[in-house]
Amino acid sequence: MITGKYPSLRLRRNRKYDWTRRLVQENTLSSSDFILPIFLLDGKNKREAIPSMPDVYRYSIDRISQIIDKAIKNKVPMVALFPKTKKIKKNELGTEALNENNLVCRAILQIKKKYKNEIGIMCDVALDPYTSHGHDGLIKSNEIINDETIEVLINQSLLQAKMGCDVLAPSDMMDGRIKKIRSALDNEGLKNINILSYAAKYASSYYGPFRDAVGSKGSLKGDKKTYQMDFRNTDEALREIALDIKEGADMVMVKPGMPYLDIIKSIKDKFKIPVFAYQVSGEYSLLSNAINKNIIDKNAIYESLIAFKRAGANAIVTYYADRLDKILI
Ligand code: PBG
Prior knowledge:
By secondary structure, the chain is an alpha/beta fold. It has one domain: TIM Barrel (Alpha-Beta Barrel). It contains 11 helices and 12 strands. A hairpin with a 2-residue loop joins strand 6 and strand 7. Helix 8 runs parallel beside helix 10. Bound molecules: ligand PBG.
């Protein structure tokens, strides 16, 4: 029976003003929640637009101070470096990955020299920016060969660590590489290097614009389904995470981000370790294009980022991290 008092429980009371809403908010974002990807290219005084990623650029090394200064001012804890390697430097074996004068190595040296430990540097461990076929590993008779690839990844890891990289992020999805990289680091006395494993990385269509940005798109032969995960699976992600933790990972990444919030939540609930989310290039471009065409309003960016926090992510890799002064208001 409806009485005069009905309903005594009114959840809208907590939503009535901005201050009540702020008072009861369960999740927040701060600049410490972000990792900023930076695309590098050869040359001097260059800033090159990436057609498939609105407002994202590739920078020559002499111009990255501009972005890092801003990142530090905005209190972003870490940047992630991605090279666009010239086609002539790519080959079947991805040997440019082991060149101590490659784009990533030169950028690490410059950033560390200028900023010391004011900001963290994260580097991918994978061969795809360096191979002529665009795969993350070596190929033999049409197969991405696991163990031989790991030998190269170990050397890539050691090189990047010696240059001053703080956080190595293997994004290659080879089996057993975390253990091998961790023991190689230990043997070289590099015991303070963090490993952020891209442990649950799915074979996804959302990486398209990134492959464009690092110049591997046109050259990629086939797909990455024999090493990146099947997006139909959850249990497999938990097994990947359990293994990488056992092998020595300090933090783990889920990638892509928004379509995989359930995976972030399951990992956080089960393992209680730092979990990062990667709001990948395809997510970024979808959102940005829709905003630029006025199909959705720009608050969708904040909403998308809060979703990661709600799911349990500790930090988010996002191409919006260079605009936090506009987003976190
Ligand atoms: C390389 C790598 C990829 C991304 C990060 N590291 C692409 C891929 O695996 O093909 C994707 C990032 C993005 O789409 O923003 N192993």
